[in-house]
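Can anyone check this?
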Amino acid sequence: MKFIDLLEEENILLNYHFISKKRLFEQVGQLLGQSRSQGLFIYHSLLDREKLGNTSLGTGVALPHGRCLESDEIRACLIKLSHPADYEAVDNQMVQIVVGLVFPLEVKPEHRRFLKETARLFRQHVLYEKLIHIDDKHEMIETILETFEQCNS
């Protein structure tokens, strides 16, 4: 399974006004939760993970993720911030692309592999440079797919 297989247009948010990590995590919960209570559970999972260490990847991308789903699925969203924001990134770079992921409570090796491959994809600075200039959800998906194929050819 690849990130692009999970990303749906309704889980892409463009030009999100960043106020704080907490508000951002609430938004990820709203996008990925199938109910208000599940969205809140996702929010707390992301917050708990962030307390363990910053989830920025560097080069303007953050990858907040958490374990909270009862089912064996993975859910993904992509948020493009309206302006670069201080995410307290490991490389001190401002973040403008946020990739949210939620995993099952019981993480399997394939879930860890998925997280690692997604991080590798979004560490591609060329992808970041393309995404920050796109304001169309379908075009974002196509650009991610093209970059994935280039990285894996």
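Reply from J.R.: I decoded it. The helical segments are 3-6, 21-32, 36-52, 109-122, 125-131, 137-151.
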